[in-house]
Amino acid sequence: MNPQLPPLAEPQAAKGAFDLLIVGAGPAGLSLAARLASAPLSIGVIELQDKATLAAPPYDGREIALTQASIARLTTLGAWQLLSPHETPPLLRAEVLDGASPYVLGFADRRAAPLGALVPNAAIRRTLFERVSQQDNCSIFAGVEAQRTSIQDDGARVELSDGRVLTAKLLVAADTRFSPLRKSQGIGARMIDFGRTMLVTRIAHERAHGSVATEWFDHGQTIAMLPLQDHNSSFVLTLDARQMRDIQSMDAVAFAREVERRTQRRWGAVKLESDRFYYPLVAAYAERFVAPRFALLGDAAVGMHPVTAHGFNFGLRGAFTLGGVILAALQRRRDIADPQGLRRYERDHRRATLPLFVATNAIAKLYSDERPVARLARGMALRLMNATPGARRVVEASLSGTAP
Ligand SMILES: Cc1cc2nc3c(=O)[nH]c(=O)nc-3n(C[C@H](O)[C@H](O)[C@H](O)COP(=O)(O)OP(=O)(O)OC[C@H]3O[C@@H](n4cnc5c(N)ncnc54)[C@H](O)[C@@H]3O)c2cc1C
Question: Which residue has the least CA distance to atom 9 on ligand 1?
Fold first, then answer.
């Protein structure tokens, strides 16, 4: 038991009455629970996946490019310290290429520090879960679905798939970008289906990557190479869904040859090192992030296109903002679902995410448009960015997470 905490209302939590309920033990939901580790609150986290899966999540192909700001936040949560060094390869530089043009737009940290690190999504989930499962103030309901929710003036009620009923003063939905809870509260979202699929897999390659991430907007395909350990990278290929189906049936050897062909052997010979994972690209932006006794977090609030690598970085930031609002309410002895506080979270998170959400979608659309005018525009866009120090600094700050 944490000696700083006043005793929790154990009998209340045992009866299913919590202060805070979080639906979704993904990286965002877990980050919020971890942020409130020392708060005098009873927290319930509800998750479809069972405890064994949460403790050792299977590799899902995602290597999350964490900004320096996110690394600092995960350190505050005590999760970063639980990662092993091979799970945190540094990202020193990012380069953007356009089609066959030899022109390279490069970004690096202005103080010559790494821009961030690449960490498997499964490792982020594992370490956050390890932290949260040690918390005295948190109960985890794993292997169950939050099915029906209702919200009254004095609290929220959640019915679980196993028949149990939980209540709370504040309900937070961190239940994916398609968030059924968001819908159940009558909150709409701007959904953008790009009609494209992203393939991610680990490869070993002949030439060294120098800890440089490459984003290559080629004609008809977008390729990213994210540097992992020596001579290993995450290969990310985005194609329209129809083209993706054509290469889905290739065996590992044929696929490795396909990667060499598509990358024009820039990284030399290639060998597949993991399964291949496919993600249909759909972005989501909720019309509102809060309602009475209700808040959206992570992808449920802002589901980014992965091309600018900001989804979880934003989710983690949001967990700190919402966590800060809840802690401030506790300090002032106010209701943790105080509407003023929730609105503050909404305002701050919208300001932090909307410009990049809009810019990311514009980039994704421009760089998948094969019309000659679009091709011309993207070549010009790269040169313009290079020639505009202010714009470069904004991108560099957003890559390292130091943007306000
Ligand atoms: C290919 C790819 C690459 C990416 N790269 C980056 C990157 O480099 N940098 C970055 O910052 N972000 C990146 N992202 C985005 C990042 O992965 C997401 O933003 C992040 O995983 C979202 O976390 P979340 O907790 O909001 O949601 P999720 O990870 O979707 O978790 C939601 C959880 O809620 C549970 N759940 C849903 N409904 C219910 C219910 N009714 N009851 C109980 N449980 C429920 C689900 O089982 C799930 O565990 C990438 C995404 C993809 C697809």
Answer: 309
